[in-house]
Design goal:
About 50% of the residues lie in helices and about 10% in strands. With about 325 residues, it is an alpha+beta fold. It has a 4-stranded antiparallel β-sheet with strand order 5-6-4-7, sandwiched between helices. A 3-stranded antiparallel β-sheet has the order 1-3-2. Helix 2 crosses helix 4 and helix 9 packs antiparallel against helix 10. It starts with a helix and ends in a 29-residue tail after the last helix. Pfam families: PaaX (PF07848), PaaX_C (PF08223), PaaX_M (PF20803).
Length: about 325
């Protein structure tokens, strides 16, 4: 039987189909952004090669991300750096506030609403629904999207980035205090109508099932026993999987969640595992991360503030 670390990496390698573009977005947000938001394409290819993402797949995915205005190119001689665009960097920085937070945001007891006004063609309505779903919005009565804490301006910016600028004129953003919904019991009823919490809990439980054995192996062996390459690959997969989870999670306040909600366990697991992987993975990046001019930029010191150690919450040993 394979050790948990090797099993997690092998499970990824054996997937029939990999969404390489989404994985590369995670790499840029987690590893490239702290080193100046740029990387030589050849270096990116080499860093991802151990995950069995071949050169052609990485090149194709990066070209597509450039076309979608996540990335832009900057040649340096015969080589090319890929950089985050200003809009891509803003999106990453907004996501980072959720990914690396030590706890869920406090609720100001106001709901964020986006109401559709007028008719939308079925395909555009479905595209809108999917785009807001991936921002954590629930849906009520087919034409009202709801979220407890989203930045509505950022939500509209994200819709523009998704190619939905043509529907903005038929959307009305609103803030509503919980009193406008009646009382806490009505809020809970609304939550169950807007989100499938059972499905989300199941996805969180699956995340914990995948990564808890990895954490236990590191606790038993000591984080110094993991090589830098494996640490980086695990860090990439961890943040990639956790980022996709948070995109679907409205981060509801505790008062509106079922007892023993698995989201908090997943957050604490991700925090401890990330902190254990950070130092060896950064040593690997120091040795293998390159710009087109051959230089290796240093990571910003703020990188080590992610999942702060002073968080009073801790995952039981």
């Amino acid at each position: 039987m394979l050790p948990p670390i090797q099993k997690r990496l092998d499970d990824f390698r054996q997937q029939g189909r990999v969404q390489a573009g989404s994985l590369i977005i995670s790499v840029f947000g987690d590893a490239v952004l702290p080193r100046g938001s740029r990387i030589w394409l050849g270096s990116l290819i080499r860093l991802l090669e151990p995950l069995e993402l071949n050169e052609r797949l990485v090149r194709t995915s990066v070209f597509r991300l450039a076309k979608e205005e996540w990335l832009r190119t900057e040649p340096a001689g015969r080589r090319t750096d890929y950089l985050l665009t200003p809009s891509g960097q803003r999106r990453f920085e907004e996501a980072s506030r959720h990914i690396y937070a030590s706890s869920a945001p406090r609720w100001d007891r106001r709901w964020r609403l986006i109401i559709t006004v007028g008719e939308l063609p079925p395909k555009r309505r479905e595209a809108l629904r999917r785009a807001l779903f991936w921002q954590g919005f629930g849906i009520l009565n087919g034409d009202c999207f709801v979220h407890p804490s989203a930045d509505l301006s950022a939500a509209f910016d994200a819709l523009i980035a998704e190619g939905l600028s043509d529907v903005l004129g038929k959307l009305k953003p609103l803030l509503a205090a919980d009193a406008q919904f009646g009382n806490a019991a009505n809020d809970i009823d609304m939550v169950h109508g807007a989100w499938n919490l059972e499905r989300l809990a199941g996805v969180y439980a699956e995340f914990v099932e995948h990564y808890q054995p990895v954490l236990e192996q590191l606790r038993a062996d000591g984080q110094g026993d993991i090589d830098g390459e494996s640490a980086l690959l695990l860090r990439i997969l961890l943040i990639h999987d956790y980022r996709r989870l948070l995109l679907r999670d409205p981060e509801l306040p505790d008062v509106l969640l079922p007892p023993e909600w698995p989201g908090q366990k997943a957050r604490l697991l991700c925090k401890e595992l990330y902190r254990r992987l950070l130092a060896p993975s950064e040593r690997h990046l120091d040795a293998h991360f390159q710009l087109a001019n051959g230089q290796t930029p240093e990571a910003t010191p703020t990188l080590h503030e992610r999942f702060r150690e002073d968080d009073p919450l801790a995952l039981p040993g």
